[in-house]
Amino acid sequence: MTYLIENCPSAMFLFTYTCSASDKTNGQKMVKPIIERCKYFAEAFHIHFHADEPTLNDDEYNIRLVFNIKEPQNLIFIKVSALFSFAQICKIDLINQFYFTEDDAQIRKIT
What is the tens place of the pLDDT at every residue in 21-37? Predict the structure, then answer.
């Protein structure tokens, strides 16, 4: 995915989805629909989406889902509210968030 506008603020949100699974095959079957829903949502709202490699620990299958919104600030607010509503519907948990300003974007471009 390419960003529509360069040098804009960026808001990054990390979520996690956990389900009970006895093995990796069952875990993959359970998280696949969530990953697909996240992909469709992100494409519809023009948000960058990435799913990390899932992990299996003590019969819990866990995957980290990353959404990055890089837009002018007024559009970030609209997309964040939609993202949080989507997260509530899918029952994914927010674990961290980052915000990079326009100045940060300029610095990253220079270095």
Answer: 888 888 888 899 999 99
How far is the C-alpha of 50 from the C-alpha of 40, rounded, in Å? 12
Alpha carbon of 7 to those of 3, 27, 100: distances in Å? 10, 39, 10
Tell me how far apart the alpha carbons of residues 41 and 36 are, in angstroms, rounded to a whole number: 9
Q: Which residues pair with 111 in a beta bridge?
A: none
State pTM to two decimals: 0.85
DSSP of 78-99, one letter per residue?
HHHHHHHHHHHHHTPEEEEEEE
